[in-house]
Amino acid sequence: MTSIPPVRVLLVDDHAVVRQGLRLFLGLDEQIEVVGEAANGEEALAQAEELRPAVVVMDLMMPVMDGIAATRELRRRLPGTEVIALTSTLEEHKVNGAIEAGAISYMLKDASSDALAEAIHAAARGEVRLHPEAARRLVRDFRSGEMRETLTPKETVVLQLLARGQSNRDIAQDQGVSEATVKTHVSRLLSKLGLESRTQAALYALKHGVASLDGVEM
């Protein structure tokens, strides 16, 4: 039977003792491999490009480059790498900033080692894990339509085309870009809107007037 390789993880925190503790706890899970550490956002980007981890566990408040800026840039450079924001605050601008930047999960540092390990495995599968308060705020913002304002013009066009039932290939041909570029736009807009699927994105577009029912294949 073919064994499943462990999830490769990069730890990013400006406190060495926090990184050591995380490495110790995560080392208890045979299906997680901590491949590197970084003390700030700039180090995280360099390490991520060299090591190509599946998941980056990212502190938000760091010197040189904070976790939100690092997450945004990392997701731009390595869209296949997921980011878990692991921080000590539930300040609204931090929660929204991390999710808008592309973090797939938002957790507090007092989370249990089991909860963090589960979130890492979930992130590797492309699944979201959020602190309950972070989830509540995202639901509120989703209902009010505020999150839509974070989309770039190109992401808005892609969202409209998703609502019309177009595939990544269709969108790529329509916009004159590669399918890989479309996949990146889809991944980012789903993260920004706090959604998990193309179907949810299409429903969001219709609900908030980003697209109409005309020409939509449901």
Write the layout of secondary structure elements.
Elements: E1 7-12, H1 16-26, E2 32-38, H2 41-51, E3 55-58, H3 67-77, E4 82-87, H4 92-101, E5 105-108, H5 113-124, E6 129-130, H6 132-144, H7 153-163, H8 168-175, H9 179-193, H10 198-207
Parallel strand pairs: 1-2, 1-3, 3-4, 4-5, 5-6
Description:
There is one protein chain. The chain is 51% helix and 13% strand. It is α/β, with parallel strands linked by helices and 218 residues long. The protein folds into two domains: 7-140, Response regulator (Rossmann fold); 146-207, Winged helix-like DNA-binding domain superfamily/Winged helix DNA-binding domain (Arc Repressor Mutant, subunit A, Orthogonal Bundle), CATH 1.10.10.10. It has a six-stranded parallel sheet with strand order 2-1-3-4-5-6, with helices on both faces. Strand 1, helix 1 and strand 2 form a beta-alpha-beta unit. Helix 2 (41-51) packs parallel to helix 3. The protein is globular and about 50 Å long. The termini are far apart.
Task: Give a short synopsis of this structure.
With 218 residues, this protein is an alpha/beta fold. The protein is built from ten helices and six strands; from the N terminus they run E-H-E-H-E-H-E-H-E-H-E-H-H-H-H-H.
- What best-fitting shape do the alpha-carbon axes yield? globular
CATH first level of the largest domain: Alpha Beta
The appropriate CATH architecture of the largest domain is: 3-Layer(aba) Sandwich
Proportion of residues in helical segments: 40-55%
CATH superfamily assignment of the largest domain? Answer: Response regulator
Give the radius of gyration: 18 Å
GO molecular function: DNA binding
Protein name: Two component transcriptional regulator, LuxR family
GO biological process, one term: phosphorelay signal transduction system
Domain HTH luxR-type: 144-209
